[in-house]
Design brief:
The structure holds 2 protein chains of 2 kinds. By secondary structure, chain A is mostly helical. Chain A has helices at 4-10, 16-61, 73-106, 110-151; one strand at residues 12-13. In chain B, 82% of the residues lie in helices and 1% in strands. Chain B has helices spanning 11-18, 23-56, 67-108, 112-156; one strand at 20-21. The chains are: A mainly alpha, B mainly alpha.
Amino acid sequence: MENPQEQSLLQMNLDYDGGHILHETVRWSRFLSIIGFVGISLMVLVFALAGTALAALLPTLAPSIAGLADLGTAIIVVVLLFVFAILGFSVFMLYRFSVLTRRGIDRQDQAAFTEGMKCLKIYFITSGIFAILGLLGNLSSLINLFLINRIHP
Amino acid sequence: MEEQQIPPVPQDLENFFNIAFDSATRTHLRQAAVWAKISTICAFVGYGITLVVAFIGRPEVTLETEGASITRTISTTSILGTLIAVAAGTFINYFLYRFAVSSIKGIDSMDSVGTNQGFSNLRTYFKILGICLIIGLCFAALGLVVFFAGLGAASRY
């Protein structure tokens, strides 16, 4: 069985450079997350105040999701709330990453550091899912383009 | 004999060495890097598709009188805007891709230098995003000032 000393020699530690780099990373990610919170709050406020007018403008503003306009206001509201909730969760994870990683480094708290890395993982998983959905949207627009070209060459 | 004074080690420096990339941390970081890689690959493919759509897609506005010049202006502006957006997106996502590749390599080979390189790229990625956000906010604030100044001038006349 490995003794603790041998184990500590085998494992990777955060060195001075790594700590310094992480400090800066955490600072920028906290800034981004705070701006993200403000941005999402503003978007929710705008939709709450001018939701009806924006729903009417939806086909002009975002032609790719214009089909949503036919589904009715209630469904649009539910979809938008769902999207805002996921975006908010993603931004919250980025904020937690910055706070916990910083705490882990400053207070020598291994558990907080690990939890920070877990939040970074969740943040990137959410980003990855959004990126896959975005790619599917792009692919659908490409297919639409080829279909239109085939019908009206 | 005079007792030699040992300068105290700064708290931050000391702390760095006590934080370890243990098994759980490495797993989380590796999965974060894998998802970051998936995200960037999707973004790169998406940019390619956007370019194809921008170049092949025809403008929907066609006017009989002076139609040629208007249509061409719309098309050129749209392609230029797409090119700028794709170039900026590729530049930003390149750093995220580098973070993913360096971190995975560093964790797999238990190399802290590789992991540090990964974090350095993540720092650059967040930094560029932050700077872009600051510039965007400045433009938004400027737009608001111009808008309210215009409103004020219009109400005077």
